Amino acid sequence: MMINENNIEQECIKWFADLGYNINDANYSTINNPVNIDKVKQKICDLNPNINKQEVNEVIQKINDLSEDLNLFSRNRSAYKMITTGVKINRVINDEQKTEIIKLIDLDDPQNNDFEVASQLSFQGKFEKRRPDLIVYINGFPVSVIELKNPIDEFATLEKAYNQIQTYQSQIDNLFTFNVCNVLSDGTYTGVGSLTASFSRYNAWRKNEKNTQNDWQLLTLVNGLFRKDLLIDYLRYFVFFEEETPGKIIKKIAGYHQFYGVRKAVNQSLKSHMEKTGKGGVFWHTQGSGKSISMVFYVAKLRQQLQMNNPTFVVVTDRQDLDRQLFLTFKSAINFIGHVEQADSRKSLREFLNARISGGLLFTTIQKFALEQGEEKFPELNSRENIVVIADEAHRSHYGHIKKFKCDKGTYEYGSSQHMRDAMPNASFIGFTGTPIDIEDRSTKSVFGDYVDIYDINDAVQDKSTVELYYESRIVKMNLSGDLEQINDLVEEAYCDEESKHREKAKSQWSSVASVAGANDRVEKIANDITRHFSERQTELLGKAMIVAMTRENCVGLYNQLVKINPDWHNQDPNKGKIKVVMTSSADDSDILKDHKYTKRSLETIETRFKDPDDELKIVIVCDMWLTGFDVPCANTLYIDKPMQGHNLMQAIARVNRIFIDKPSGLIVDYIGIAPKLQQATKTYTNANGKGRPTIDVEEAINICIDLIDVCREKLKNVEYSKFAKEPLKIIPKVVDYLLDPSRQKDKKTFCDKVSALTKAYTLCGTDKRIDEYSTEIAFYRAIKIALTKGNKSNTLNNFEKEQIMRRLVGDAVTVKEDILSINNLSGINYDEKISILDKKFLKQVTDLLEKNIALEVLKKALENEIKYKFKNDIIMENKFSELLIETIQKMNQQTITTAQGLKEIIKIAEEIEEEQKTRKDLKLSPEEMAFYHAICQNKSAVENMEIDILVELAQKIRSKLAELVTVDWTRRDNVLASIRIKIKQLLRKYKYPPDKQQEAVDLVLKQAMVVGKGWEV
Asked: Measured between alpha carbons, how far is 289 from 457 in angstroms, rounded to an integer?
């Protein structure tokens, strides 16, 4: 059986039926309101037995009132609140007015709701009818749209499915008022995204609740999300809205790893609470995979569990900047999780815990759990058992419950972690981390318990939640006395607890390393290398960079050297300049640091600028700030000149692993020698049952490039192109023609796919001299791919390829301009859409081409342009001739006709177009009148029984009368559309149009009017 889109749809419907969904096979029927109001009324009565008819109508009116909000995202937010919290109505009981909550969905008992899947429902859009593949309903509310594509059609991409969803959102936006999520799938690959998500944010759904996966992701998704209890849980706890700026709403929904991981974490927390173990476990999701958002979902779900009796949450970090970032994340979700507070001092922390009877969410740093003067033990502040402590980045600072001997005092003391437990002796603790914390002698189980969920580097890269990281060594040596690793270990140990008195010893050794690292000649070498490296990298991959130095002084020293080399980078104004130093400051800072001292507001300005991909600020130099909890998706390069290890190293390199448009990967450039620590991290990940490596060596990118070049060579082995470096403009058309042959469709696709992969690999190692010998050849292959894909809607270049290839086709020998890369310009033919393709001069140019496959492409594109140009307002003729062209192309692809025959058929279509234009002139009709003539002539009985002159006159009347009726925004105004329908019917009756087809004619004429009448509005 041939696999097609319909097969997938029918299989999907069966899967929903197996889950107990009602199936509504509408058989292409058209409905006006996407919300099934009759079903909504029925379920309101079922779920609210005491409601009366008047109150039902009041609720329905509030639902209908949502449509008054023209902003779909705002409307969706209001609708989400309705279905999750109910609708408020006023009810008078015993002469007293009370507010009642009317449930629209039973969130406590999923089986008490009505679940339905509708297939091929058709809706009248703003311009024409639209028919999504599948719609999932709960109690009459459409909560998900599923758009399907054929898995074996190389041009039926998920991106096209996404574009269709966007069209639906624009033209039948009421379908999305109550939307929870959308699904794109070709069966094998499936993406789930929110109403506001870009295509890159549609994430795979690879696993189900039991952590198993099916070859067909769509089946995994249906069973793993749309099972009734799971869908209700998802709707209730895994959706929230942010408003970054007034009016800009971002809807965030959980990925599968967040959904299942949080459910496990909540179950473990409930178990910990009931068994009084205090161990909520460790939630390990690699950096960049949305761990902070998972924490929001965790709080939202756990706080609603009856067993917890309105718990209090305390979110603990060990850095102020991380505390701020997390606080802002939760604050943005305040409507989802409630009020949040931040402890700004030790005193405010104690006051919060002392006074809190129930509820509440507090952010604090662990250092605020410090003893006051005269205290030997931290006082108990709250003994409740429903306090949940969320330790973000649960690593060294949370092992302070171990007593240590203090030589300088001759006493035994605990760290802040134990003080925290003394303050809340019956609390439950859960650790959220981006790295495994079972390192050396650190016992994860003794602190938090077992891992509750693991989502590691390999998972994140495979799901495209993060990009791969590549490592490049560019070490600049130092003359250092002592073991750098040993000093590094000492510093790590000393700084893990703010109260440690060993800091001074660590500082002295650290400062000696920093002094050597900051020597002028070394800094000059690094600055020159960064200038060259970053400039070259920008030609391949636009983005931003972070530089990590050892100390604040070293940051400033490197800054001074960089702006000495690049004076135009510098500007003292926080709002200007290409490079900034971001660091903490104090009143007693030396003069060398004071020029980089910023107010809180100025730092926020710099942060905003750095996150803006279009801002001129391209590089920031940091020491400690911005290395944790700081997301800049457009950053793709991290230069490291600071010894780091373990958790801190993993946090730092994750600054460049975020997804951003078509960013293929992030790059770590090492100036100090962090490779051994990366290797150790690899071992740690393996021992912790994780998969994947923190980084991949650039050496591998070079090998990947060479392997891909071999594949490209293999695909072109039967065409002579050895002179590509010296004569590119002669060779490129020859190779393009070779790959355009219909018998080589698979080779063409493979070649284009491999060149895309080669382009991405090359962006990682293009600055390496070892790849220089291949640069011209790579540029040649990239030019071929552009020529094959440019202007072809079925196979367009993605944003990354368009931007990057055109910035630099590497290699001086191949300097191909963008316009040369089009098929027309490869052929040497300039086609004007106003000239018929039957023009003798143009046809001679085409048929004389030696490269017949290019000739065919030129003619095909010319015909596509001609159809659009001559029938831009005539949907009947545009569809007719487009279908003829598609049919011809398919016959060539299936090799049922030759290239020469294909050329003849395309010319024949062009002759038919010419004949159609002649007919219009003979009938003395304008293009608009001819469009209506074609609409009413679709009825064969009308053509057979009516005189041509009568049909011509009717077409002219329809055009003139409809032009009189339209007003501003008429396609959206039901009253105007109704008047137009009536006028069309009157005209058809007047001219005795066959009554059996009148309704179809009315629909078709109105559809045509919506295209023709765009310029009629007054």
From this structure: 9
